[in-house]
Design brief:
The chain has 130 residues and is an alpha/beta fold. The chain is built from 4 helices and 5 strands. GO terms for molecular function: transferase activity.
Amino acid sequence: MKFYIASSFRNIETVRMAAERLISNGFVLTYDWTHGAATSIAELETIGESEKQAVMESDVVIIMLPAGKGSHVEMGIALGTGKQVFLYSPDETVNDLALTSTFYHLPEVFKVIGTIEELIAEVCSKAAFY
């Protein structure tokens, strides 16, 4: 099962840890964006193409909050192409009306609030049954 994790640069270590745990459970990462930020518009275009392709090749897309604008675009691509979407939040912020998004609450989005271990367990248990 192929997966992609969308998040912000401030979550790089958590993204890497989650990816390693999923890989150790037999999942395949479609793209690792955690190795550096773009330094030019041309690089942004190349990275954007790689990330779009990675989402489209994935069976499972994880949106790890807090996330930036790119992650929300990736979530839109995932929802629009019928991917299985897991929305991870370490706390209840995802349910705060002042901070949440309508798309977080769609029935096809699996919300996981808690620890990374809980996220991994949910992805491993639900990914095969979607």
